[in-house]
């Protein structure tokens, strides 16, 4: 059996998402797509693949799972019903599955927190939409700032902002995105200096 890699699995997932018009794909998406387009038989093909994977894992020595990890991670993320069977086939596989489940649960919690923050932000925007916002309120609400507002909020002059050249969208940028851009430029400058220092040392020797 040849284990499928990350790229192949992500490609299949993307194709299923396109055919199903879904941003987030799960095993239910595969089932529904097979019902709508039975000639694809995608769910059956992956069920057969999982059966072969279970048989292979039972024969695999504990700890030798590097090639199998992409498929295991993907099946956990898709919510495939035979994940528990995979875990029972190999102790090392069970550890990988438990770790991936924890990561998926953490990612879901973070998404829920992000949705809750976005909901609160929308509610706050509703409360203040009938009056003009101050610069502090715009920054607190993570709203895009104009060039003049950005100079005041960041504490930079016109020339400094021009030299930094932040990626504006419609002439505006969020302060958070501006600082990320500044940090990126700083990291690039440090890397260049380190490279130049290394070249100078090499020339001296």
Question: Would you write up a description of this structure?
Answer:
This protein is mainly α and 205 residues long. The chain folds into 2 domains: 6-108, no CATH class; 132-204, no CATH class. Helix content is 73%, strand content 0%. It has 10 helices and no strands. The longest helix is centred in the middle third of the chain and has 38 residues, at 91-128. The N and C termini lie far apart (54 Å).
Q: How are the SSEs ordered, and which strands pair?
A:
Layout: H1 6-20, H2 27-36, H3 42-59, H4 69-78, H5 83-89, H6 91-128, H7 135-140, H8 147-154, H9 158-164, H10 175-204
Mean pLDDT across every amino acid position: 87
Low-pLDDT segments, ≥5 res: none
Instruction: Tell me what portion of residues adopts beta-strand conformation.
Output: under 5%
The end-to-end distance, rounded to whole angstroms, is: 54 Å
Enumerate how many helices there are, as a single number. Answer: 10
Distinctive features:
mainly alpha, 2 domains, 205 residues, single chain, 10 helices
What's this, in brief?
With 205 residues, this protein is mainly alpha-helical. The protein is built from 10 helices and no strands.
């Amino acid at each position: 059996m040849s284990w499928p890699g990350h790229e192949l699995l992500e490609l299949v997932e993307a194709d299923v998402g396109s055919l199903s018009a879904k941003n987030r794909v799960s095993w239910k998406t595969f089932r529904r797509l097979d019902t709508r387009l039975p000639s694809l038989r995608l769910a059956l093909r992956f069920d057969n693949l999982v059966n072969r994977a279970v048989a292979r894992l039972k024969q695999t020595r504990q700890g030798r799972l590097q090639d199998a990890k992409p498929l295991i991670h993907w099946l956990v993320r898709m919510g495939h019903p035979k994940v528990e069977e995979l875990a029972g086939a190999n102790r090392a596989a069970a550890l990988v599955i438990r770790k991936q489940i924890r990561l998926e649960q953490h990612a879901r919690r973070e998404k829920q927190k992000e949705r809750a923050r976005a909901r609160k932000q929308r509610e706050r925007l509703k409360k203040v939409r009938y009056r003009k916002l101050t610069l502090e309120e715009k920054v607190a609400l993570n709203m895009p700032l104009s060039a003049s507002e950005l100079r005041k909020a960041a504490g930079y002059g016109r020339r400094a902002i021009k030299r930094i050249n932040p990626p504006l969208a419609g002439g505006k940028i969020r302060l958070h995105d501006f600082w990320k851009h500044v940090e990126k430029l700083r990291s690039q400058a440090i890397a260049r200096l380190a490279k130049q220092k290394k070249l100078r040392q090499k020339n001296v020797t």
